[in-house]
Amino acid sequence: METVLSGIRSTGNLHLGNYFGAIRNFIKMQHEHNCYFFIADYHSLTTHPTPEDFHRNVRQVLVEYLAAGIDPEQATLYVQSDVPEIAELYLLLNMNAYKGELERCTSFKEKVRKQPDNVNAGLLTYPVLMAADIIIHKASKVPVGKDQEQHLEMARTFANRFNRMYRVDYFPPPYAFNFENKLIKIPGLDGSTKMGKSESEGNAVFLADDPKSIRKKVMRATTDSGPQKPGEKMSQPVENLFNLMKAVCSKDTVDYFLQEYKNATIRYGDMKKQLAEDIISFTTPLREKILEIDADNEYLSKVARMGAEKARESAGKTIREVREIIGFRSFY
Ligand code: TRP
């Protein structure tokens, strides 16, 4: 069975876009493959969070992934920093990662441009840590978006370089498993085509949002001045609302409002009311699950321990073998 692995950014709450995107695929994959999913907390330190924010974000992500349906009995779900073997492999890989290739990385260049006063070594070597994350479990398939393609290419470079340097066939080269073309793309509420956390305020509906704030956000969603003349193209913001409807409403509901639109009798207010209620029906069980898990420290601690133990077993084996290959010999 193939080993699948993916890192989860520990940057706060999940929204509908995340749910219909990566998460549903993770949930499907956990039954079909040997899956490792981890919360990338080491990586998040490049932005210097306060200790409180740091911990709260990791906890939130853990709670919400569990609530969304990642099954810790099926997949190995863990917090990156609970597996210090990853940090050791990162150190070892760093010895053969070159400044030039790291500086040429697109994501690094973007950070240099966007935050010139915080260009730290953690950012430069981010792809090395990511490679360590992946090859510590000898994972071959990495379900990530297109934006991670170059990082995967670098992970292959580091894995192959290790193999060549020590004349071994130890690390399998990992490949991005691109499911992006199969994703339902969830648009934002602000007229943009993407729901995202970093977009404008009110763009995203979070899984943990209560009904009142969902209604408020949806009622404020961007539309246009009214249905166009027959044959004219639907405006992007209205198309977005229909696309959101397709994700959460019944087909009858979508068809009804499409017909109203065609007849030019549509009232966007009515459409939004319906959309808000259907989003609420969809997210309510998720929100309840989030609240339930959030209140259960014992369960969280059990899950985290189980994940750490399973991950360390696999990572520990790799580190022992890597040390042997490199030539570490103990004096005691
Ligand atoms: N860089 C990934 C992101 O920004 C997160 C990540 C860290 C990751 N380590 C990983 C993804 C290992 C896949 C495998 O989304």
Bound molecules: tryptophan
- Which stretches of 5+ consecutive residues score pLDDT under 50? none
CATH C-level class of the largest domain: Alpha Beta
Q: Could you state the CATH homologous superfamily of the largest domain?
A: HUPs
What is the percentage of strand-forming residues? 5-15%
Widest sheet: strand ordering: 1-2-3
The major beta sheet can be summarized as:
3 strands, parallel
Kindly state the mean pLDDT as a whole number?
95
Radius of gyration, taken over Cα atoms and rounded to an integer in Å: 23 Å
**Individual helix count:** 14
* Overall CATH architecture of the largest domain: 3-Layer(aba) Sandwich
What report would you give on this structure?
This protein has helices at residues 16-29, 41-44, 51-68, 84-94, 99-103, 106-114, 121-124, 126-135, 149-165, 211-219, 236-248, 251-262, 268-294, 297-326, and strands at residues 3-9, 34-40, 76-79, 141-143, 175-177. It is elongated, with a radius of gyration of 23 Å. With 332 residues, it is mainly alpha-helical. The strands form two sheets. A three-stranded parallel beta sheet has the order 1-2-3, sandwiched between helices. Strands 4-5 form a two-stranded parallel ribbon. Helix 4 packs parallel to helix 14 (297-326). 35% of the residues are buried. The model has no long low-confidence stretch (mean pLDDT 95). The protein contains 14 helices and five strands. The chain has two domains: 3-184 and 297-326, HUPs (Rossmann fold, 3-Layer(aba) Sandwich); 211-291, Tyrosyl-Transfer RNA Synthetase (Orthogonal Bundle), CATH 1.10.240.10. Tryptophan (TRP) binds at residues 5-7, 9, 40, 43, 130, 133-134, 142, 144, 148, 151.
